[in-house]
Amino acid sequence: MIDLKLLDYLEGFITPESKQRFLQVLQDRTNILTVAIEDVFQTHNTSAVVRSCDIFGVQEAHLIERRFGKRLDEDIAMGSQKWVDVHRYQNTADCIASLKSNGYKIIATTPHGNACLLDDFVIEGKTALFFGTERRGLSDEVLAQADGFLKIPMVGFTESLNISVSAAIILQVLTTKMKKKAIPWQFTEAEKKEKLLDWTKKSVRSIDDVLARYALLNQI
pTM to 2 decimals? Predict the structure, then answer.
């Protein structure tokens, strides 16, 4: 249950322009699409994918960090990690299990095999897009548990794109398609309020002190 009284209190610590910007961005936020990144070595790639999630309105990103540890560089992400919900996993199995338990279909992005071309891909519900490294691609574990496969059509000699470029292309195309579909892709009003509270907290200086004062005021 959202504490609307707390939200109203905290909004007194941000500018009206900030609140309006939050509301504007929330109109295009979605949880229908999400992204999972498996064991990518280069921090700039992971960080750039999270930035693309923010740019195209995808609220959640899932990072599998089994082999190389934490892969998110805040400077490269350019603050997007503040606005995107980043979930971290020690292994692929936990990530897939979590997404499937929340109703997501697992879609493996791969340039090989009989994968669906991006232009032909149809979004029918909650979809988790998995991305791997340029050299190795996704693990056999992801490929074995995938509900579908997706690839970007390519006509040159090179058969793969940088992961961050691939993610940006796919997210741009699919979010555009999603908005034309008769599916409930937007946040519910409750989800908007919840995220508005979260973003407002992250925008208030000395938030711990502010929350402590709020607690004291509500004890009087």
Answer: 0.90
